[in-house]
Amino acid sequence: MDRLHTVILPVAGLGTRMLPATKVTPKELLPVYDTPLLQxxxxxxxxxxxxxxxxxxxxxxxxxxxxFEPNDDLERKLADANKADLLxxxxxxxxPDGVELSVVMQEEQLGLGHAVLCAAENAExxxxxxxxxxxxxxxxxxxxxxxxxxxxxxxxxxxAAQEVPHQHVSRYGIFDCDDTGAGTVLPAARFVEKPSVQExxxxxxxxxxxxxxxxxxxxxxxxxRGAGGEIQLTDAIAxxxxxxxxxxxxxxxxxxxxxxxxxxxxxxxxLRKQVNLRVAAE
Length: 282
Prior knowledge:
about 280 residues, alpha/beta, Spore Coat Polysaccharide Biosynthesis Protein SpsA, Chain A, nine-stranded mixed sheet, two-stranded antiparallel sheet, 9 helices, 13 strands
């Protein structure tokens, strides 16, 4: 597939695991070294070709939409001070021409499946992408890699996958793959949401990137509550069929918890230093 027209960013969660830092600041605007989590997600969506980005937000998080609004006064002060690097960084939050931002409110958090369903009226035709900003994947843009691998004629879903420790399988949706070899794209017989260690069909877990056939919205409308009493996206994907797991090349960091955010910050710091050293050597 050449490009992914619609990308959904579920960002309505209140970030309770990150309190008190998230009492005022949405977790998606917490910095990973020098860049908010939300900006990493937007850059990845754009790299996949997105021309419509849908934020599934919450009324208590107005700062997420405000992040994309220009700040003319700040930009003027930076320009007058000849701080070109900072000016470019501030302007990076603006979406390019031709890319539309929609903000949809999810008043009540009823699961990832419910969040995706909230985007149904705003999505363009064709497969949709779902990107969870908490899952920061450094390296090659994961959603762009998946877009290149997605074949609409043979797949109904493609889900980013990573092997996790056996004792952690109950935290994830787990793939039951016919082949767990070294391939990048693996067909899966089924999906099991947060199984026990004894019931898990593998250690291959779904992480926060999805490309899904447009029919997922109809399936979600009829999907009951599953694990945790929530509408699970993995349950709907399983009903849809045509499941495929995608082994991405990047390095994943779970930024939904304090330690994960610190690890990601250190990783980005190393990357920034490497870039600065290369520039200095040129």
